[in-house]
Amino acid sequence: MTICVQCIDSLEIYIGQQDELLFTCLTEALSAEALENLDFYIEEFLEDHFQEQKFLEKQLQRTIQKMEKHREDAPYTFKFGIFQSLKLVKKFPKDSHREKEFCEQYWEFSLVREFYLERLVELGEVEQVLPLLEKELEQESDIVASCGELLKDLYASLGMEEQYEHLLWKLVTEISFSDMRLYRELRSLYSVKQWMTLREEVLVIRLAKGDKQPYKIYAEEGLWDRLLDSIDLLDTYWKTLRDYVPEQLLICYRNYLDSEASWSGGRDHYRKLVTYLRKMCHINGGQAVVKEMVEEWRFNYRNRPAMMQELNRV
């Protein structure tokens, strides 16, 4: 395999001398499927070294024919063919209109629409792309987040402040829950005093819309008390919480561990408790709390030899 790949790479020396012959030989090898395991390397070689429009068109036609064979029976292969085709049409000269033709032909696929809309923005085709982006947003397709951000930036660049702010609110409160970058952008539009109220409004709307990760905002805004609700949140943010609310953090860990220690378990259970105790020692005031807890446990659970042994590791 390695030798064959190296052979393909060595063909570079013939580029510019016998392009037609070399291109024909390689595409025929692909069509014959004689070198099936090397298809990727050959296609990559063709894509990198044959940039003239006549070669691009032949590569595109071959890619389309190949992917169409799998439209029904192999969706992933078809989608990959779409992706490969988009890489090729992007290389055509703008005045060839090949990019537009391909995208219109496969407009039903969100991957194609997203590609073409991004290209229109990139090329500055504002009048053409603006209504298309607005329509995509209304349809709430699977590319609504990316299209929404394109449209938001377009509104901003055109000075459409009302539309920009409205769409940014929609993105933050309904569409892109995980994107804290958009959250910070929205926050930057308001004064600190205004945001104190609006932040709570954002949280209420997001929770009503099904946001499962409001704790990202809690951490962003320093709402430490709201991060003390579960052991998972404590474990995720403990290194931050120990700097701001060490006493509350220790209390939460102690309550959790006292509850866990109350039931008898195997050695792994006790090792887990010791791991938490060690973690608590890295929190300001934690060593004293851990010492007190260990003393209580040694007295309360003195009939658990495995637990007593593990406590020696604190």
Q: Which band does the percent of strand residues land in?
A: under 5%
Mean of all residue-level pLDDT scores: 89
Name the overall outline: elongated
- Structural classification: mainly alpha
Please work out how many helical segments DSSP would assign: 18
Share of helix among residues? over 70%
Cα end-to-end separation: 54 Å
**Low-pLDDT residue spans:** none
What does the main sheet amount to? none
Order of helices and strands, N to C? HHHHHHHHHHHHHHHHHH
Strand element count: 0
Q: How much is the radius of gyration in Å? A: 30 Å
Provide structural commentary.
It is a single chain. The mean pLDDT is 89. The chain is 72% helix and 0% strand. The protein has 18 helices and no strands. With 314 residues, it is an all-alpha fold.
